[in-house]
Design brief:
The structure holds two protein chains of two kinds.
Chain A: H1 6-9, H2 31-36, E1 51-57, E2 63-69, H3 71-74, E3 79-84, H4 96-104, E4 109-110, E5 116-122, H5 125-133, E6 136-141, H6 148-151, E7 177-185, H7 188-194, E8 197-205, E9 217-222, E10 228-232, H8 237-248, E11 255-259, H9 275-285, E12 289-292, H10 295-301, E13 308-316, E14 322-332, H11 343-347, E15 357-364, H12 380-396, H13 401-408, H14 427-436, H15 438-441, E16 448-457, E17 462-470, E18 476-480, H16 488-500, E19 507-511, H17 528-555, E20 562-565, E21 568-571, E22 582-583, H18 584-588, E23 598-606, E24 612-622, E25 629-639, H19 646-665, E26 696-701, H20 723-735, H21 746-759
Parallel strand pairs in A: 1-12, 10-11, 14-15, 18-19, 25-26
Antiparallel strand pairs in A: 1-5, 2-4, 2-6, 3-5, 7-15, 8-13, 9-10, 9-12, 13-14, 16-24, 17-18, 17-23, 20-21, 21-22, 24-25
Helix pairs in contact in A: 4-8, 12-20, 13-14, 16-17, 19-20
Chain B: E1 4-11, E2 14-21, H1 26-33, E3 52-55, E4 58-61, E5 74-76, H2 89-96, H3 106-119, H4 125-131, H5 143-157
Parallel strand pairs in B: 1-5
Antiparallel strand pairs in B: 1-2, 3-4, 3-5
Helix pairs in contact in B: 2-5
The chains are: A alpha+beta, B alpha+beta.
Chain lengths: 762, 159
């Protein structure tokens, strides 16, 4: 068993330490490039001799690809390469790599509208497009299935002949159900028997798109001897590299992935799309190839979030104590497995100290693009239901909804359904802060409804690497393995500056390419500022130890006789000798005469992420004539452990809430009878615009996570977890019936209002 | 080989000449011919505003304007917004108040916000929200964008 890394055992967290930089909001160093147009995103790379790559996509939701003839396309003037399935190594279907290569480029079958079937690289976009039209694909169209519940039926069209449902004994026939997953604790029958009140409801949610404004863009450049440089917008350079290595059969050392600035990902850029295609085109053409996806391609063939169906039952006593909870969940994963659906049964009730829980979950394939991660993958859509049932129970027993949650709130020492025993957590403090905040204490304006809902996310750690280099003038550069998705470069620079006792302006951080550092896990799960912060604090402490050694050498004393404080090496005591403190810059200036450059480097599998909790409060008004919902006031209360950069923490809260508002009120995919997506544009798939939403108030709770040197918890996932539930609860207060289906669009709400009126005698 | 058209234009005060195909948009040529990649493509259908530029003083989505239509026109893009080392107040406020998160929508939003403040130096929150309703942002939830515009407007008014 390998020794755990010392900083993971002993973070050095000191709640009384006076912080100079952490907790402020300096201007991020990469900001200037973003407000001047200099920042280089995926599509902003231009190389000499670069070709334009374009992808031909299946117009069918489900079809056998009988033949592909590219000969006419190859003859178009200016065309330098045409590729299809024949240009990718054969990998057995059913394996992770087999799925990955088939999602990148269809092989035996096209499995969704927009599935890539061929691609062209040419000297101009017009030549590439002309060539695409000349590729002849012979399809045998098969019956398709879009809805996951339909896909579970015995007579449904089968996507993959090799799938036998995991978790079902004796499953011997092909099925669209990838896995049945059961998770529980305690005895739910005994628990429900103790309940005074039980509520059981069914819910459904639709897939939504991550909606990043930057479509995937990449440039691949390959040499005759098989070396590959890939520039792309990604949340996972090392994961891309390793997966590309697996499906293209190229050594990892020959693939260098350089991450661009990333124009939004939210989980949607944790898996590749055009990148393997650009590489194979470049290998064939021996020239750099750029592929920038169009928005239509982004909608039809990248990343949506799982749609779900759920049945949720919770019972409680008259005093509000929850006695049991039960759930049956169905997750639509698109054409291939990979929804991370097991997050949901683990997280859906976690925040309440439940003793009896039973869940059964199913992951189901259908003829839609393979889903990708999105903030707290698979959890918000289930919490939409859970927090509705919780709210209904609170009202049934006449308890304030926040008090009801407080009554059941998990605290330190609670053993979760997934096995973790909570350390210090801030759910109670979050609920108390919400109860005290101005929004909750203001009367609900006439005609409006108020809703609250709570959310939880594990927060993550994982494999992380980083380096801190001290320059000859004492300024500092950081090489970070994770991607900066929302300002982590500045937050991590702040922690480095705090450790070293120097102004943050003396620090600059860059995002590494895959040749510069060892493996980094994907930038996701609210792990980055936590994990890479940990690695860089560790690197800083190593550099400080080295600075002390150098100072000791200069003074001719033992390294133990030197301490480091506020940016200076000092004699540890009066008996060491009378030496003037040496600054980092003074020591760095002498590195040529000492032992060369001073740096710190660290790699670790980071543990100790502190779970995150939030509570949202929202006031809505529903136009009873049109069914349109107006968000009047919104407050996010969330535990950040410690907000490193306050403005950025607020930004995470606000952005998550507004994404949730879109998911709650109007975002969904429409499919025609032919299985083709009918709204693959921003006009028809409408995301919230500035005039749809109010200011989003934030309340940062700080219950430190002692496993981190500065006490922080990740804050990226939780802000979207309770949003749809909070809005639905508010709408329920407004119209008298709580919606159970997303999105809560005007026609659906009108129907609900009319049904409710009819039931209650108009 | 498609027929090419000879275009003469001024971009951020500099004279440019280039050849383009009839179907190429102003966005295409700004990025791929003139290497002014600060203007972004988010949708190419005029729905996201990431490609917002000014053509002869009018705010447009450059993805909806054909390059051939801009022969003889004066085009202003994000690359011309700062004056030497001096950032435009909007740029500064977006930095100070974190109005930009991932940054992909920022160039378009800055150009649009400047166009607003030039015609209305003291817009209400609602006016800012409706003016910027054609510029999608998925990161910020708009809060800090609106506050940045308000702060810049105050500073520019000397209020």
């Amino acid at each position: 068993m390998a020794q755990a890394h010392p900083i993971l055992e002993q973070s050095g967290f000191n709640p009384d330490k006076k912080l100079k930089i952490v907790g402020s909001s300096p201007i991020k160093h990469d900001g200037i490039d973003k407000v001047t147009g200099r920042a280089k995103f995926g599509a902003d790379m231009y190389l000499p001799g670069m070709l334009v790559g374009k992808i031909l996509r299946s117009p069918h939701a489900h079809a056998i690809i009988k033949s592909i003839d590219v000969s006419a396309a190859e003859k178009v003037p200016g065309v330098k390469a045409v590729i299809c399935r024949d240009d990718f190594p054969e990998i057995t279907p059913g394996s992770a790599n087999g799925d990955m290569t088939r999602n990148a480029m269809a092989r035996e079958k096209a499995l969704y509208d927009g599935h890539p079937v061929a691609a062209v690289a040419a000297i101009s976009e017009s030549a590439a497009k002309a060539a695409l039209k000349l590729i002849k694909v012979e399809y045998e169209v098969l019956p398709h299935v879009i809805d996951p519940v339909e896909a579970m039926k015995p007579d449904a069209p089968i996507l993959h002949d090799h799938v036998r449902t995991k978790g079902v004994k004796g499953a011997d026939k092909p099925s669209n159900v990838i896995e049945k997953y059961e998770l529980g604790i305690g005895d739910v029958d005994a628990g429900f028997a103790e309940a005074d009140v039980t509520v059981e409801r069914e819910f459904d949610t639709k897939p939504m798109h991550q909606g990043y404004i930057e479509p995937q863009g990449c440039v691949a450049s390959c040499t005759e001897d098989g070396q590959i440089e890939l520039w792309c917008c990604t949340q996972a350079p090392w994961v891309y590299r390793d997966r590309l290595s697996n499906i293209l059969k190229i050594e990892t050392a020959k693939i260098r992935v350089q991450q661009s600035e990333m124009g939004g990902g939210f989980g949607g850029k944790t898996g590749f799309y055009p990148e393997p295609i650009a590489i194979q085109l470049s290998r064939k053409a021996k020239r750099p190839v750029k592929i920038a996806l169009t928005r239509n391609e982004v909608f039809r063939a990248t990343g949506p979030v799982s749609g779900t169906k759920s049945r949720i039952k919770i019972g409680c006593k008259k005093d509000g104590t929850i006695t049991a909870a039960e759930a049956e969940l169905v997750f639509q994963t698109g054409a291939f497995t990979g929804s991370a659906f097991t997050n949901a049964p683990q997280a859906m009730f976690t925040r309440y100290a439940l003793k009896n829980v039973k869940t059964t979950s199913y992951e189901v394939v259908s003829n839609r693009p393979k889903v990708n991660s999105f903030r707290a993958p698979c959890v918000p859509q289930i919490v939409f239901g859970v927090e509705g049932v919780i709210d209904e129970l609170a009202r049934k027993i006449g308890m304030d909804p926040i008090d009801f949650r407080l009554r059941n709130a998990a605290t330190e020492g609670y053993k979760t359904i997934y096995g973790e025993t909570f350390g210090p957590i801030g759910f109670v403090e979050t609920l108390q802060a919400a109860k005290k905040c101005d929004h909750y204490n203001s009367p609900v304006p006439p005609g409006q409804g108020r809703g609250v809902a709570a959310g939880f996310w594990f927060n993550r750690g994982g494999e992380t690497t980083g380096t801190l280099n001290i320059g000859i003038d004492g300024s500092v550069t950081l090489i970070l393995g994770t991607t900066d998705v929302a300002g982590s470069r500045i937050s991590i620079s702040m922690m480095a500056a705090e450790e070293l006792g120097i102004p943050v302006d003396k620090v600059r951080a860059v995002m590494a390419d895959t040749h510069s550092l060892g493996f980094n896990r994907v930038t996701a799960g609210s792990r980055t500022t936590f994990s890479t912060g940990m690695v860089i604090v560790d690197s800083a402490r190593k550099a400080i130890a080295e600075l002390c050694k150098r100072a000791a050498g200069i003074w001719g004393v033992s390294p133990d006789a030197v301490t480091f404080e506020d940016g200076y090496c000092k004699p540890a005591g009066a008996n060491v000798g009378n030496f003037e403190p040496l600054s980092i810059a003074q020591i760095a200036a002498k590195t040529m005469a000492t032992h060369g450059a001073i740096a710190g480097h660290s790699e670790m599998n980071v543990t100790g992420a502190g779970p995150g909790f939030g509570l949202h409060i929202v006031d809505v008004e529903v136009d009873k004539e049109t069914g349109r919902v107006d968000i009047k006031r919104y407050t996010v209360v969330e535990d950040a452990g410690k907000a490193i950069h306050r403005l950025q923490v607020e930004g995470q809260f606000q952005g998550g809430a507004v994404q949730g508002i879109g998911w709650a009120l109007n975002e969904e995919y429409y499919y025609g009878k032919d299985g083709r997506m009918e709204n693959p544009s921003f006009l028809d798939y409408r995301m919230p615009v500035a005039s749809d939403v109010p200011m989003i108030d934030t309340e940062i709770v700080e219950v430190p996570n002692p496993r981190h040197p500065y006490g922080l918890r990740g804050v990226g996932e939780v802000p979207v977890v309770p949003t749809m539930a909070a809005i639905a609860n508010a709408i329920g207060q407004c119209i008298g019936v709580r919606p159970q289906s997303l999105p809560m669009s005007p026609p659906k709400l009108l129907k609900l209002i009319d049904e409710h009126k009819a039931k209650n005698g108009g | 080989m498609s027929k090419k058209y000879h275009i003469t234009t001024t971009v951020n005060g500099d004279d440019y000449e280039y050849l383009c195909e009839a179907q190429q948009t102003l966005l295409d040529v700004l990025r791929d011919e003139l290497m002014l990649a600060g203007t972004k493509e988010g949708c190419a259908t005029g729905d996201c505003g990431a490609c917002t530029v000014m053509v002869d003083g009018t705010m447009v989505c450059s993805c909806l304007v054909l390059a051939v239509e801009t022969d003889g026109a004066k085009v202003d893009t994000i690359e011309g917004m700062a004056n030497g080392n001096e950032l435009h107040p909007l740029q500064r406020k977006f930095l100070e108040l974190n109005g930009s998160q991932c940054g992909i929508c920022t160039p378009g939003i800055l150009i649009a916000a400047r166009a607003l403040l030039e015609r209305n130096p003291d817009p209400t929150e609602t006016e800012i929200r409706y003016w910027l309703a054609g510029n999608l942002c998925r990161c910020t939830g708009y809060d800090k964008i609106i506050r940045s515009v308000q702060a810049a407007a105050r500073e520019m008014r000397g209020a």
